[in-house]
Amino acid sequence: MYIxxxxxxxxxxxxxxxxxxxDASVIKTLARRQVEAGADAxxxxxxxxxxxxxxxxxxxxxxxQSEVAVPLCLDNTKQAVIVEGLRACRNKAIINxxxxxxxxxxxxxxxxxxxxASLIALxxxxxxxPQDKERRxxxxxxxxxxxxxxxxxxxxxxxxxxxxxxxxAQNQLEDILRVIGDFKLLTTPPAKSxxxxxxxxxxxxxxxxxxxxxxxxxQALGLEAAILDPLDQELMxxxxxxxxxxxxxxxxxxxxxxxxxxxx
Length: 264
Fold this sequence. Notes:
This protein is of the alpha/beta class. It has 2 domains: 2-230, Dihydropteroate synthase-like (TIM Barrel, Alpha-Beta Barrel), CATH 3.20.20.20; 232-264. The chain contains 11 helices and 8 strands. The longest helix has 18 residues, at 133-150.
């Protein structure tokens, strides 16, 4: 599974304070530790309290790149902030994210093509978050049709079914799991799927076990990528063991260590 580390986010106090003080050591340490723990890419989000998000995004990108060489997933609701991050990126980037609203989708498809970036697309539109699998599939098909028309290959798209908190939308989670597999039927080659894993346990008490149980279930149904906390060791051990059971890796007694060594 493609692991996108979630911890460089201005919603976290340590990142917010590091941004304000331009303390590169905090950001570099977070970047290095996530990659060492198995992250393939790093989400970069300056947070909603940033007074100058475009410059904060550029500083974060430049600081992270001075420490690690993994792709960066640029996470912001404003296109101008994403553009600033893309300009600073030296490696392939992932844009996080667009919705299925035509105007926004077209603008972000053009941006992805211009910068040779991948694109996370949420199966949500102006009507809100879908309440069933069929609507999620309908929006996913629209996204992929629009991407094909723009010239962005389906395998550069990460479809996000929009994971909801279990304490408010428990009845939607089975549909969300099932639609992950159905996404693969929409195009050849298929688009990838991604979830923001921590969303499922937001506001809940037993966050770690909820996260890792959902992740393994989604993994079995074909989930390719997740934005998650790679420093949660039990989560990572569950993910790695899931890959083993699905015959994605070869068994040895030290399969967890071997998996992480193969990432480095």
